[in-house]
Amino acid sequence: MSQSLTEFSLEEIKQATNNFGESNLIGYGSFGPVYLGLIRDRILAIKRMPDSLHRRFMAMVTKLSKIRHCNLVNLFGYCCETGHQMLIYEYLANGNMQDHLYDSIDLNFKKRIYIALGAAKGLQHLHSLNPPLTHNRFKMSKVLLDADFNAKVSGLSRLLEMRKEEANVYDPVVGLDNQETFNETSDVYSFGLFLLELITGEEPKPLTSNDEMIQWLGPRICSDRFVDQKMNGTFTREALNSVVKIMLKCLKFPAIERPKMEEVVTELEKIYNNDFTGEEEGSTKFSLGSELFTIYE
């Protein structure tokens, strides 16, 4: 393995989770329950996996050990004993971004851009691997936050376990053109939906064409009801315009016209590093109506 991982015994895991007790259950992943455990003076997230061939499980562990980045949820260790296979991850104290978006009142514009930038860097790293990896199911709940609100993209074990036939099914939620298979552009589309949800504070519907995009976004983008009111007073119109521009590009059809994640990261870095510490006087409306039609010409 390219990165040293810790192998934990089943007994250690049982002790850490109170024998997989209800009080230690913190959620459910794609494959099963996830438990919180204190192991060797470190708080970790323990993901129980369905029993599979030892060789297949260890192959996944090896692959996951090679995918490491500060904006990805990194594998810390594993447990593999008869009938018990578990992936042990770093624990992210602030949970997932979806919960914060809808429950937190302290999520200003700058903090949202910081989180979006971190998530974009995580996806960019996946796309930069050789061969490239695509997340395929990126969304708000897949972005986890550590104690300092650094964003880390989760869901990589699901990516590696996904069957080939499942990975190539047309799905409007990830912005595939009809008959197209998953590639980096589907992640870019999903990130565009992520930005849209981040700005509006509401979960967007899948938008499957440029015409549908214009019909849904047009009236909202030129009104007072486009931006999440919890952000009011924390941004300038110029900063907001810049975010919306890159968002529109990410959501564009055909998929080949979408930007690379590298470009998205560059644009978000510019926005984050600019001064947008106060809202300009007047309405929160912003003039992107004409640009909406220009981008989708």
Could you describe the 3D structure shown?
This protein is an alpha+beta fold and 297 residues long. The protein folds into 2 domains: 6-90, 2-Layer Sandwich (Phosphorylase Kinase, domain 1); 97-295, Transferase(Phosphotransferase), domain 1. The protein is 40% helix and 14% strand. It has 11 helices and 8 strands. The model is unreliable at 163-173 and 279-284 (pLDDT under 50).
Integer average pLDDT: 85
Q: Work out the strand percent.
A: 5-15%
The tally of structural domains comes to 2
User: In CATH, what is the homologous superfamily of the largest domain?
Assistant: Transferase(Phosphotransferase) domain 1
CA-based shape: globular
How many DSSP-defined strands?
Answer: 8
The stretches of 5 or more residues where confidence is low (pLDDT under 50) are 163-173, 279-284
Number of separate helices: 11
Strand order of the largest sheet: 1-5-6-4-3-2
Quick one: biggest sheet? 6 strands, mixed
CATH topology of the largest domain: Transferase(Phosphotransferase), domain 1
- The helix-strand sequence is EHEEEHEEHHEEHHHHHHH
Structural class: alpha+beta
Over the alpha carbons, how many angstroms does the gyration radius reach?
20 Å
Q: Determine the fraction of residues in helical runs and give it as a percent range.
A: 40-55%
CATH class identity of the largest domain: Mainly Alpha
Q: What CATH architecture of the largest domain do you see?
A: Orthogonal Bundle
Ends: how far apart? 48 Å
